[in-house]
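User: Hi! Is it possible to get a structure for several chains at once, not just one? Here's what I have:
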Amino acid sequence: MDIEQFRKAGYQAIDRICDYYYSLQNRPVISKVEPGYLKQHLPLTAPEKGEDFQVIADDYQKFIVPGLTHWQHPSFFGYFPTACTFEGIIAELYATSTSNPGFNWTSSPACTELEALVMDWAAQLLGLSAAFLNSSGIGGGSLQTTASDSALISVVAARSLYQQTHPDAKLEDLVIYTTTQTHSLGLKAGLVLGLSVRALEVKSEDRFSLKGETLRIALEEDEKQGKKPFILIATVGTTSSGAIDNLPEIKAVVKDHPSLWIHVDAAWAGVAMSCPENREKCFLNEINEFANSFCTNFHKWGLVNFDASTLWVRNRKHLTDALDVTPPFLRSTHGDAGTVIDYRNWHLALGRRFRSLKLWFVLRSFGAEGFRAYIRRTIALNQQFADFIATSDILSLVTPPSLALSVFRIEPKRNSPDQVALSTESLNSLNRLFYGRISARDDILLTQTVLNGVHCIRFAVGAARTESSHIQAACDLLHTEAKLAIEAWEPTTTEDSK
Amino acid sequence: MDIEQFRKAGYQAIDRICDYYYSLQNRPVISKVEPGYLKQHLPLTAPEKGEDFQVIADDYQKFIVPGLTHWQHPSFFGYFPTACTFEGIIAELYATSTSNPGFNWTSSPACTELEALVMDWAAQLLGLSAAFLNSSGIGGGSLQTTASDSALISVVAARSLYQQTHPDAKLEDLVIYTTTQTHSLGLKAGLVLGLSVRALEVKSEDRFSLKGETLRIALEEDEKQGKKPFILIATVGTTSSGAIDNLPEIKAVVKDHPSLWIHVDAAWAGVAMSCPENREKCFLNEINEFANSFCTNFHKWGLVNFDASTLWVRNRKHLTDALDVTPPFLRSTHGDAGTVIDYRNWHLALGRRFRSLKLWFVLRSFGAEGFRAYIRRTIALNQQFADFIATSDILSLVTPPSLALSVFRIEPKRNSPDQVALSTESLNSLNRLFYGRISARDDILLTQTVLNGVHCIRFAVGAARTESSHIQAACDLLHTEAKLAIEAWEPTTTEDSK
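Assistant: Yes, the chains can be modeled jointly so their relative placement is included. Here is the combined structure:
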């Protein structure tokens, strides 16, 4: 493809993306293809001769788009949102147009310098303390692919620091602490590193938040047995229910256990701290006072296209001590002099994409004000949903709404005091049926979860095009499906038939 | 930004990318900015009010482009090339336009299905055996970010398998084998995982290729001491000199050490196997016969925009056994039934970008024929360079050219038999001066390396716009700079002045 053919194909791609967004809300949210659909349409080997690009571009529309789940659809309430803004798209377009893997300063100075700068913008937007800024020269921030990578890097840095200060500690004795509500990234870090993971219990009555006392007891138990807990992955906004671990209590415990690294995973909820009114409930003060590392994903609720996981550390030396490898072919004058950041020593790989461009475009185009307005709007939309649940006689919230996430289930209100409540097991069975009905539809997407044995359904707001009308439509749909589920449900136990 | 504003900004971005490529060869290759340049131009915090997108787009041209090193410049001969094709750019544009993190089949079926399919296309293009194809149902391929990630995942899978079969093995005793010429990814995997790395010696007379005997002796030594070597990262095409480890000899050794996992890192050279004439020297047969995992980066020399590291494993179960985490909120009907690939269990993170789209666009637009033609053209350009060095009276190749890479240095030919050769130390000092001169220029980019104590310079061909005329210009420039370096050089030892 030559330059003029690219111009033509590029304009067409832009036009088709416009068409996509004009038509998006009329499409099904969920792809209804069956496993193996694509190989019915495409050959099993690459073509020998090059094909006309128009055919390829048309095949994208014909075969790929119908197989996409539309995460940007206004009725997408599943998982957590994954951001996609026009500013982000254009930034990615510019970034890939020069395709340079800015692994160190010399390999492309702008990549490093923009990342260092906009990570400071982002830190200040969220209210992080100056200690985390790149301009501090001690702490600093970098863009990772996902929160899993950010957590893994933090665990590696923590392990490396722990081994430095405890040279006799055996890998077999090291323990990563999470809670039973921590994202699978905790367990995965353990699998990748071959280290034990202990998931601390959290309780429904504490809204699934880790209590300081639980941590203290676990530390004492493990230390007595010669185990070496060296990091706690605490969460601000868990995936299942948006729970926020009790950082003030954890802080008090850590005073007596100073070698426990605290990584705060706020993958989803962290961007909410851009609004001052959310900072206290997200424990910003405590994060600033004692977290060793902090992660939030701007690519979830933060308007920056996937991937854009922001990771800050209080001491960059803990990263570079753990990850620095400098072979001769990567040495450079400025790197040797230590006057520049070489981001390759702040992440797992060597090369990295120019991700900071999209963060820069988004923060400038929206401004801090526009960013906060977006966060507030989605929280208000979730409140609209939670208000509907509160007035429903068949649906109940399982926990209070957390920012832009509600967790609910069918739980018919008792009409009279002598009506017997359904057992957990029966309610679970009813709610599985309910979820089965919802997930069979293609005009809405929600995901399910289990909270300490309770089967429930998540409603996560955040797709940029979701309006109040989509929330209302979702409420109506869920009410109808819940009624139908109750009607269709066949109680199987004696108790159920009461 | 609304849809029509996006159309306008998108067209402009496409136009500006066209302008960039029209002007590219007249730009300096290397950015001449000084550390800290960007913060002179940009504020230290995000703007409070949103800015007009035209201002932002203009600032990209004004402040970012001058700080880029132009990896696509026809006179870029540093590191290894990083691919950037128009097909790849458009694929990335489509991929980011829906921003869906296809972590499992259900989350966006097309992402998984296209990846499974085009990884089979790519495997067949390179001549990999059917055992590595996704269609085999046993082996399989996936797209990772970089060769570092691919190697790390392979080490994790190998460690997990080794621990399953050797339940008493302590992490402290496990050893990762590399050679002294293995990319830093080997050492980094060791750092990340907290495992020992032993770099086996390779010799100049073996062209820096690992011999079977070296491996056999190391295995015997380590096993005698209770160490547990569990993986060898062998290289086909090392970074420093394009060396290819002796896989036939390694295969013979591994027969007696069946629990040693062989990961073949062909990050740069692997795509050359698309041409049948390169397969024997890259030991394709041996890779097919006994490698447990194989990686090449299509984003280097393979026309697919960064990032696109392709990783194949002989047994996908070794990946999923090591990496599978399935919390309730990620369970799905098809996933539970095992009828689909859930790629989240094939890599480190959870979410992943839709990378297969660019591999698909590139392979279709070029066709296998066009892909091979590109590989052959770059090898021929490197041969042109190597031929020039062969006729030079002051420059010499340090090793025979390897595919599209030449490694050379100043080494004046002796005019008479009684003229004394310069010592290694003197030649190193002269070549450092020479490289200093080259790297001070902004119209060419080469990188340096050290091969068993010998300071030398790499010339890696592969930028898509490099023509014979650019090679000729590079030859002329290097000849001139070498002469000037020799003139400017002040021998400091008695021997040097002979």
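The mean pLDDT of chain B is 95. Chain B touches chain A through 145 residues (CB under 8 Å).

User: Great, thank you!
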